[in-house]
Specification:
Length: 236
């Protein structure tokens, strides 16, 4: 792995995919930032001044309705960056960006990334490919929330969180999971109970431990594998 002036190794796949020259030019602008659960990185219609390359943890893209109910429409983990649409002239946030699994991110001023894109066709191509992936994931999430069973969706979300938490154990409440899945808390509690009884997870006092990842993969809908395949195309 590359190392950086903050002494935290880079785990973000998008940064790791860059050429040494491109990363070298971005390096002075990268600043490590702790991510706390519930932290709002960007608010709807707020000006986007920084991008966050997630290095550990999970950030959710959340749509909130007039009655206050919220649902996750996408997520950013160690594969990507928050608010990539800002790179193409959309300067205000379309949805809320909220930390769900704590960790760290490399924060970089938007203008520094745009400047590098302007003079670097390869980097611009990489970021355009990532935007395509981000849109694809949002579409997959929308279809998943509408068409797939709650238990399958729960498995999918836990797998995504596990990938980016970089730990088998991470904080998670049923309330948060219900919001992410657009479901009632009672239904999520039943689904989580089924997964725990099957030996896939262990849930204790707001913390979940993945105990059988293979079981979660078998229990998930097609969406997790589809997103992973799209990621592989992005980084090859």
């Amino acid at each position: 792995m590359h190392d950086i002036h903050t002494h935290e190794p880079i785990a973000n796949r998008l940064l790791l995919s860059l050429s040494p020259e491109t990363l070298g030019r971005l390096r002075p602008n990268l600043e490590i930032e702790p991510l706390q659960r519930g932290q709002v990185i960007d608010r709807v219609d707020g000006k986007i001044e920084n991008l966050h390359f997630v290095n550990r943890g999970l950030v959710s893209l959340v749509k909130t309705m007039r009655d206050g109910r919220s649902v996750e429409i996408g997520a950013v983990g160690i594969e990507g960056v928050t608010d990539p649409s800002a790179l193409f002239g959309i300067e205000t946030a379309i949805v809320e960006t909220i930390v769900q699994v704590p960790g760290t991110a490399f924060r970089v001023p938007l203008e520094a990334v745009v400047r590098e894109m302007t003079g670097n066709p390869d980097f611009r191509c990489t970021m355009k490919k990532y935007v395509r992936f981000a849109i694809s994931e949002i579409a997959q999430t929308a279809a998943c929330n509408r068409l797939h069973a709650l238990e399958e969706r729960c498995c999918r979300w836990l797998l995504i969180a596990h990938d980016s938490a970089m730990s088998d154990t991470f904080p998670l409440t049923h309330e948060f999971l219900a919001m992410m899945l657009g479901a009632q808390r009672a239904g999520v509690s039943v689904a989580a109970g089924i997964l725990q009884k099957a030996g896939f997870i262990r849930y204790v006092r707001g913390s979940v431990t993945i105990t059988n990842r293979t079981g979660l993969e078998k229990g998930s809908c097609e969406c997790y594998a589809s997103v992973m395949a799209e990621l592989d195309r992005l980084f090859t």
